[in-house]
Amino acid sequence: MEDFYTIQGEGYHTGKAAYFLRIGGCDVGCYWCDVKESWNPKLHPATDVEEIVSRTLANPSKTVVVTGGEPLMYNLDRLCSLLHSHGQSVHLETSGSHPFTGEFDWICLSPKRKSPPMPEIFPVANELKVIVFDETDFEWAEENAAKVSNDCFLCLQPEWSRSSVMMPLIVDYVQQHPRWNVSLQTHKFMHIP
């Protein structure tokens, strides 16, 4: 769908420069999604993998974030292989709702109730990022945290449109459950993609 150089705004790697590859197509359909234009894959013609890698290498960061849409709708083996062959650190942001492909240096799993993660993604997730829209999402977060490895980085992130309502609840929850961390969409405060 698009690729761009920016600062990672969420989760464990917040604040680090990264090149983003946003893959068009998503069948999860979260009503609060902030990139709904990524949903229809027909709106985003296929792009040659070598061309994508070439544009990626033209930037100074050695970190590439593959996001979407839902990137695991596609086989990511070749993309990851080419990026790694050029010394790139490849990160994935996924709901985990499709079969796992590709080789990644960091996997951020952001599970969605509407289309839950496949079991194979839990043991390989480095980060579990749960979007908190309402209080029931704390229970959803714990259900998913019980399935990831013990060293997985756990974070709760308020859904942007409800952040003023949910932030006090998230702060309280993290204080009571200190294995969790707070994630903010800092790129929105910086006014960058």
Descriptors for this entry?
single chain, 193 residues, alpha/beta, TIM Barrel, eight-stranded mixed sheet, 8 strands, 24% helix
Task: Describe the protein's topology.
Layout: E1 2-7, E2 17-23, H1 49-57, E3 63-68, H2 77-85, E4 89-94, E5 106-109, E6 127-132, H3 136-145, E7 153-158, H4 163-176, E8 180-182, H5 186-190
Parallel strand pairs: 2-3, 3-4, 4-5, 5-6, 6-7, 7-8
Antiparallel strand pairs: 1-2
Helix pairs in contact: 1-2
Please give a structural write-up.
The chain is an alpha/beta fold and 193 residues long. The protein has one domain: Aldolase class I (TIM Barrel, Alpha-Beta Barrel), CATH 3.20.20.70. It has 5 helices and 8 strands; from the N terminus they run E-E-H-E-H-E-E-E-H-E-H-E-H. The chain has helices at 49-57, 77-85, 136-145, 163-176, 186-190, and strands at residues 2-7, 17-23, 63-68, 89-94, 106-109, 127-132, 153-158, 180-182. It has an 8-stranded mixed sheet with strand order 1-2-3-4-5-6-7-8, with helices on one face. The radius of gyration is 16 Å and the shape is globular. The two termini are 14 Å apart. 36% of the residues are buried. The model has no long low-confidence stretch (mean pLDDT 94).
